[in-house]
């Protein structure tokens, strides 16, 4: 099949081009329940509704949403500065590439859309000029807010490539309503179903005791995962190269 694989869609009766990555991610969230019901042991339990096909297109716009932990944990300022630098660099070429960039920052008790999707360098510089840090880590609200932002954007333009880059030490301590870990996982299930490409950049400092859940989220939902303690604009841009031309 020709053309770049950009997203997936429900499979037709005649399956031609299976999106194996997305199919396995969709099936992954049901494995425990299916394994309990199965009469035989399998490496993975697939059902017809899991199967999705690749959507390919040569030229299409990418919508990249940076979701940045601005809480009071160590390294918050470095995360913000690295993200701001990468966003401005991406915006410099965004108009030519037809891409749009956005940013959500999360701190205290909520996540906030700081930069709506745009290709304007001027708007990016204006809205990202002053970004406060500090407070707790509402990771669940960050995933929920990101899903909502992409859901609105995909409804307007279903042909975009949705890319979500989460930068955090993944130590949630604020719930929207109840169990913040469950809320994170529930939001990730919706993100997988929507076909959003997710990259997790874990900045948790190396130690004998691991507190963050970044790797657990990545393994559970099939998200791309990078462990980077000393984050920089250039390292972020190198990661972006694997998902979008700029």
Describe this structure in words.
The chain is built from 8 helices and 8 strands; from the N terminus they run βααββαββααβαβαβα. 39% of the residues lie in helices and 22% in strands. The mean pLDDT is 86. The strands form 2 sheets. A 6-stranded mixed β-sheet has the order 5-4-3-6-7-8, with helices on both faces. A two-stranded antiparallel ribbon has the order 1-2. With 246 residues, the protein is α/β, with parallel strands linked by helices. It folds into 2 domains: 5-56, no CATH class; 62-241, 3-Layer(aba) Sandwich (Rossmann fold), CATH 3.40.50.410.
Can you give the helix content as a percent range?
25-40%
Give a count of the beta strands, DSSP E runs of length 2 or more: 8
- Give me the CATH architecture of the largest domain, please: 3-Layer(aba) Sandwich
Strand percentage lies at 15-25%
Return the string of H and E elements.
EHHEEHEEHHEHEHEH
Judged by helices, strands and strand pairing, the structural class is alpha/beta
Name of the CATH superfamily of the largest domain:
von Willebrand factor, type A domain
- Can you summarize the main beta sheet? 6 strands, mixed
Could you give the order of strands across the largest sheet?
Answer: 5-4-3-6-7-8
Report Rg: 18 Å
The average pLDDT value, as a whole number, equals: 86
Low-confidence stretches: none
Structural shape: globular
- Output the CATH class name of the largest domain: Alpha Beta
Count of alpha/pi helices: 8
| Spatial gap, N to C terminus | 25 Å
Family: Belongs to the Mg-chelatase subunits D/I family.
Organism: Methanocaldococcus fervens (strain DSM 4213 / JCM 15782 / AG86) (Methanococcus fervens)
EC number: 6.6.1.1
Domain VWFA: 63-246
